[in-house]
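Following the same procedure, backbone shapes were mapped to integers, yielding the entry below.
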Amino acid sequence: MKLNVVHLCSSVNAKTIDLALLKATAHTSHKPPSDKYVTFLQSTVDTCYGPDTVVTIVQRLRLTTDVCVAAKCLILLHKMIKSEYEYKGEDSFRDDNGHRNLIYDQGGSNLKLNDLNVNSRFTRELSPWVQCGRPEIPKSKLNKIVVEMKELMIQDCFSVMRLIKIRFEEINARMAKSNELIPVLARLEKCKEGFSEFSWRSKYLVEGFWSLVSKLTNGQRQMLK
């Protein structure tokens, strides 16, 4: 069965989505969801089947007691939201905010991520990443799921940094006086050390970002004197 298109028949499509989800989140594999199944599930985001796909993933996340399955579900949900897939047909139902809200509505307080089974070194490494705590980065790269989740986190950090940098460049050009900006800049400065581990991944972006933060900080302090 090819998993590269969304079938027109709703019953067949539902079964295909379920099959792809089960294979993508199998508890027997210690690897991240396969690109083949991720791509297929992402292809449903912009169709009428998108909400059902999201709900199915969240339901699996709610019901599982396996930390490996939970981690894979979170990876899938993240990729569903961040997907750049552009459906150009006339039946497009794309609504990123709608899918995010759907995830929150379906999950919310119903998630039991603190009740997952943790009974091995692999699951102990994985558990903090699933429970949204402050996970430690394993010294080895044997835990492929943690490596994948770390990579998604890094990509998000760079995306946010680019967006903030654009806004700061506008502020710097106008040099608008704002007493509320200094606390924001101070909080950003406290995050600087945390970025050092992977700043080499986008050296010019990171250096330019912190240079701009320092320039704005000094400029704002001078204006308040």
In short: The chain has two domains: 10-136, 154-224. The first helix runs from residue 10 to 24.
